[in-house]
């Protein structure tokens, strides 16, 4: 069996913040990144949710971390498990503002970040299934601007990598 990390980005809701107030922010998509290796993004950008609503991406992706072709990714996962002080132990989700069609001079802008700790999944020995995680304001990490509902199934891959660590 090829080891995989399965990621699902289900939905996004925003709390009242500068993001909801900003009329130039209209369409949002979500990017997911494993360290510096792999970035996947939702194929759709959806209209910004208002007043307690959620937008639904229902986007799933898989990061292969099997032994054959994914040496760098596996080494990174090993380092997460072996080095307790490694800060970058998380999958990072970035909420990105997609400029409207008629304003192509505007850049895509990162408006918020959310994190899932792979180390924690391994320590607790449980995957994250349809869990709300805080989205933090890209300009002020102490401010929560919303909730992103995600699934991260990484435990079996992490167990496999851990077995390999013991055998190295």
UniProtKB/TrEMBL annotation:
Recorded GO CC terms: photoreceptor connecting cilium
GO molecular function annotation: thromboxane A2 receptor binding
Gene Ontology biological-process entries: non-motile cilium assembly; retinal rod cell development
Location of the RPGRIP1 C-terminal domain: 3-164
InterPro entries per the UniProt record, alphabetical: C2_domain_sf, RPGRIP1_C, RPGRIP1_fam
Cited Pfam families: RPGR1_C (PF18111)
Protein name, entry field: FTM protein
Species whose genome carries this gene: Sinosuthora webbiana
Record lineage: Eukaryota, Metazoa, Chordata, Craniata, Vertebrata
């Amino acid at each position: 069996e090829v080891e995989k990390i399965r990621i699902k980005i289900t939905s996004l809701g925003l709390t009242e913040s500068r993001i909801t107030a900003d009329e130039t922010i209209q369409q949002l998509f979500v990017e997911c990144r494993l360290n510096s290796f792999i970035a996947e993004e939702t194929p759709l950008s959806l209209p910004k949710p208002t007043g307690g609503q959620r937008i639904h991406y229902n986007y799933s992706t898989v990061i292969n971390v099997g032994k054959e072709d994914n040496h760098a990714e596996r080494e990174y996962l090993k380092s997460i498990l072996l080095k307790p002080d490694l800060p970058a132990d998380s999958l990072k989700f970035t909420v990105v503002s997609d400029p409207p069609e008629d304003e192509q001079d505007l850049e895509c802008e990162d408006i918020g970040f959310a994190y899932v700790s792979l180390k924690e999944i391994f320590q607790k020995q449980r995957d994250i299934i349809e869990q709300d995680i805080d989205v933090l304001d890209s300009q002020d990490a102490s401010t929560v601007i919303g909730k992103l509902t995600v699934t991260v199934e990484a435990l079996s891959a992490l167990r496999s990598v851990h077995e390999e660590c013991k055998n190295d």
